[in-house]
Write a structure and sequence with these properties.
Blueprint: E1 2-6, H1 11-22, E2 27-31, H2 38-45, E3 52-55, E4 58-61, H3 63-73, H4 84-115, H5 117-122, H6 130-137, H7 153-172, H8 183-192, H9 220-239
Parallel strand pairs: 1-2
Antiparallel strand pairs: 1-3, 3-4
Helix pairs in contact: 1-3, 1-8, 4-8, 7-9, 8-9
Length: 241
């Protein structure tokens, strides 16, 4: 069986899970605690980051590498268009989601967690002892106030503008490239989950996110699009059972 080594709250691990679901593949997850388990991940894959997919003797790291491996392993349903122009558009959107959107979204989430003890604790790995979790929740705000400037006003405004444009786009066409689900949709949807955690997230995280973005009225169509995409993936998974 396919084995995905992951940190559950990582958007890149979510992207890998979404690809597996889109392909209707059966897999098991191995939860990795950041820092503590990185040695084992390095011994397995030669690097310290997740996701890492194990398929027999094949060990693959990086969500984009995993996505293309699975596309080759299971060509249907296709997640990369056959049309060269659409495939190029997909690559550009995926790269933007994995870099620019990922950096801005993670910075916004860290800022939100610094200001919200409940969110901060909910993001911690389940394997951490309760005393450590409690200590993180009671850290004085002054100790972590320097995290509040990770996303300056200009970068936050740029992020909002990009998200607003995406919200308009998905109201016209539910797919970012072509007329069917692609890796572009999955890459963007995964990063959106850092801004507004979906109902499928841990019960402690569902509905939480970045104030000012998760509840922004012009972004609600975008988060609803993300939720509908998750429902479609769940339906595909059930079809394969």
């Amino acid at each position: 069986m396919l084995e995905l080594h992951q940190f559950r709250h990582s958007a890149f691990c979510l992207k890998a899970r979404m690809v597996l679901q889109a392909k209707g593949l059966t897999y098991r997850t191995v939860e990795i605690t950041p820092g503590i388990d990185q040695v084992s991940i390095f011994l397995l894959s030669g690097q310290r980051q997740v996701p890492v997919l194990v398929d027999g003797d094949a060990v693959l790291a990086d969500s984009s590498v995993i996505a293309r491996y699975l596309e080759s392993r299971e060509p249907l349903p296709a997640l990369i268009p056959a049309d060269p122009q659409q495939a190029a558009q997909l690559h550009l959107i995926e790269d933007w989601a994995d870099t620019t959107l990922a950096r801005a979204s993670s910075s916004a989430l860290v800022e939100a967690a610094a200001a919200d003890p409940g969110l901060r604790v909910a993001l911690l790995p389940d394997s951490l002892p309760n005393p450590v979790r409690q200590a993180m929740g009671t850290l004085p705000t002054s100790w972590i106030s320097n995290l509040s400037g990770l996303l300056n006003p200009d970068k936050r405004a740029n992020l909002l503008t990009s998200l607003e444009q995406l919200a308009l786009a998905v109201q016209v066409n539910p797919w970012l490239v072509g007329d069917t689900m692609s890796i572009a949709d999955l890459a963007v949807a995964a990063q959106l989950s850092l801004l507004h955690f979906p109902s499928s997230a841990d019960v402690r995280l569902a509905g939480k996110g970045v104030p000012g973005l998760k509840d922004h009225p012009r972004l609600q169509p975008l988060f609803e699009w993300r939720d509908q995409l998750e429902l479609k993936l769940m339906e595909r998974s059930l079809e394969e059972v």
